[in-house]
Amino acid sequence: MEANIQINKDLIAASSTPIVLAILAEGDSYGYAIIKRVRELSGGRMEWTDGMLYPVLHRLERLGLIESRWETAESGRRRKYYRITPSGRAQLAEQRRQWEAVEETMRNLWSALQASIPAGNPEPAGVLSNGG
Fold this sequence. Notes:
Strand order of the largest sheet: 1-3-2
Largest sheet: 3 strands, antiparallel
CATH superfamily: Winged helix-like DNA-binding domain superfamily/Winged helix DNA-binding domain
CATH topology: Arc Repressor Mutant, subunit A
């Protein structure tokens, strides 16, 4: 994948729950560290902001999929740490099954599409490059 690719907002929104749950399944974390981990895991292709992350965290907490607690660091700074709950782990397993099915479907489509493109033709027959 290209480093400069822009991920569509709809894809970011759809993937935010499994991404956050998976990161918290690695261990408890706080907002900035989660944002940093997303950037690291995506090779810089997904740049989350506080405004994107915190609504997801609050929604997951309301649903009982994660829990939070306040801790004071050695620096004296208070941070809200998040932890995945047993319900969150079950939801993560379900999300993983769903995403694996979507990924397999897309890979099959990309392979079929690639196989149907004649040499030297960038578009398969019937596919419009203007998105319509």
